[in-house]
Design brief:
- The chain has 140 residues and is α+β, with helices and mostly antiparallel strands.
- 30% of the residues lie in helices and 21% in strands.
- The protein has five helices and five strands, in the order βαααβββαβα.
- Strands 1-2-3-4-5 form a five-stranded mixed sheet, sandwiched between helices.
């Protein structure tokens, strides 16, 4: 296993993680955006296949939210932890604070966050109110 920063040449490998991982590169405009951002770390096997990635998901003035994905067959091998640790060192070096956000019910994410050194500040509740409003066209 190799831990390294994502590079522009990794765009195809990020894409190869499949549709279950698409959410992680959406905020960067897709795999090429994430691969060229300088804000992602990966663990790879000997063949260069991505096993886990961690990246800044949302970047604010003072904080960067951490996102992580591990290929299903490689979970529970501390690969994500290695990526998160490297990413958090980068975030801190930029003078920002790493943050972690996940569902109360996402036990795996909460355990990874705790192991990586994050501590719970508060639990959130997400509200939604049906479908978006539709505007009716008025005719005269």
């Amino acid at each position: 296993m190799t831990l390294r920063r994502l590079e522009p040449a990794d765009a195809d490998a990020v894409h190869a993680l499949g549709p279950d991982a698409a959410w992680i590169h959406t905020s960067w405009g897709g795999p090429p955006g994430l691969a060229t951002s300088g804000h992602g770390w990966a663990t790879t096997d000997r063949k260069g296949q991505l096993l886990a990635i961690a990246c800044t998901y949302f970047r604010g003035t003072h904080h960067e939210e951490v996102a992580v994905f591990t290929a299903p067959d490689h979970r529970r091998h501390r690969l994500a932890l290695a990526c998160v640790t490297a990413l958090c060192a980068d975030i801190t070096a930029r003078g920002h604070t790493p943050t972690w956000n996940c569902s109360v019910l996402n036990r795996a994410s909460r355990l990874l966050a705790w192991t990586a050194g994050f501590r719970l500040v508060h639990e959130y509740v997400h509200h939604s109110a049906g479908s978006p409003a539709r505007h009716r066209r008025l005719t005269a």
